[in-house]
Amino acid sequence: MAGSEQTTPVRPTLAAVARLAGVSPSTASLALNDSGPVADATRERVLRAAADLGYAGPDPRARSLRRGRSGIVGVVLEDTLRDAFRDPMNVLMLDGIADVTGAAGSSLLLLTETLGRPSALVDAPVDAVVLFGCSTRVDESVAIVRRRGIPVVAIEGRPVPGVLDIALDNREATATLARHLRDLGHSRVALVTLELDREPVAGPLTEARIEAAASFTALERIRGAQDVFPGVGGRSTLGSSIEEGRLAGLELLADPEGRPTAVIAQSDLLAAGVVRAATELGLGVPGDLSVVGFDGVRIDDPVADDLTTMVQPAIAKGQAAGRGVLALLTGAAPERVAFVSQFRRGSTTAPPPA
Fold first, then answer.
1. pLDDT at 1
2. Could you tell me if 131 and 163 lie in one domain?
3. pLDDT at position 313
């Protein structure tokens, strides 16, 4: 309508409150923060002026400019947020990060990196970044963040100079699972891996694909299995989900003559999917097929209620990443933190069928 252009409301300022109350800005600030020797009558006048103007405090954008910081820590997830939150490991690590950074007054900004789209890290308003190492694009993210001069922490990332590493014993932990299967008598073993490639590909696990793997976490877990079962093969998936594990399991178990007697899945969700595939094919677990997972998370699925797995300290990893971020922001040089997984035997492993 002519003559009625919409305008953005002007945010009331501390100076406006001070003018209305008839005091100096410094006195108004002391009164609003109850942090100095201000007479009760003056404080009441300032509070009344703030209420009349709708003043809710200083503009956070201006405060950020003065401090030279946004007060925001970016956390990079490779999946869409909907898919990322279906993986309990992501949720637990985020909880750990938030426990530490939230207590220090920082907020989290979740950034999703999707193939074929410009990286949100190029200009995201963040003071520091936490990367999840199971991503297939960690190396690219590290390069972008380091060009900006922003502190970066990588959880299970490939060791890179200038990046604080929060490590997990992925290789040795997987070797522990493999030795457990070997000790039970298994020799026909297959892997079901996390996503390997920058461009999503699910398929047979070949040595060429292993050599070109972009996911450091997946690669370390493959190497751990190979330490016990040299040349072990299997299938890669599009990521950690029960459905991806089921599809890989159906492929591995379809041929009765060549099927493995045991499967090492790189996450509990994938392991649950393999168990589901075995059930669909009429195979018993662990009578016909032993299955191990990795993570030690609670899965609301009756077929995976008691997995043999490696339990990793997901929340503690997130907390360590949060502490690392805060230390880097103060100019400190925190040391690498390494965590160890614990073997938990469940009801999904047994000697191979006679």
1. 43
2. yes
3. 96
- Give the model's pLDDT for residue 66: 43
DSSP state letter for 351? P
Q: Which domain holds residue 157?
A: 70-168+313-339
- 132-135 long-range contacts (CB < 8 A, ≥24 apart) are 132/75, 132/76, 132/77, 132/78, 132/90, 132/93, 132/156, 133/157, 133/158, 133/215, 133/216, 133/217, 134/78, 134/194, 134/195, 134/215, 134/216, 134/217, 134/218, 134/240, 135/76, 135/77, 135/78, 135/215
- What is the C-alpha separation between 217 and 205, in angstroms, rounded? 15
Other C-beta atoms lying within 10 Å of the C-beta of residue 2: 4
For residue 52, give the 3-state DSSP assignment: helix
- What is the model's pTM? 0.78
Eight-state DSSP code of residue 218:
H
Q: Are residues 186 and 198 in the same domain?
A: yes
pLDDT score of 69 = 62
Domain count, the chain: 3
Q: Is the peptide bond before 286 cis (omega within 30 degrees of 0)?
A: yes
Token duo for residue 176: 């522990």
Kindly report the number of other CB atoms within 10 A of residue 35's CB atom: 9
Kindly tell me the sign of the dihedral angle through the C-alpha atoms of 135, 139, 145, 150: positive
197 and 182 both lie in a single domain: yes
Give the chain's largest Cα–Cα span.
92
Helix (H) or strand (E) holding 284: none
Residues in the chain with pLDDT < 50? 1-8, 59-67
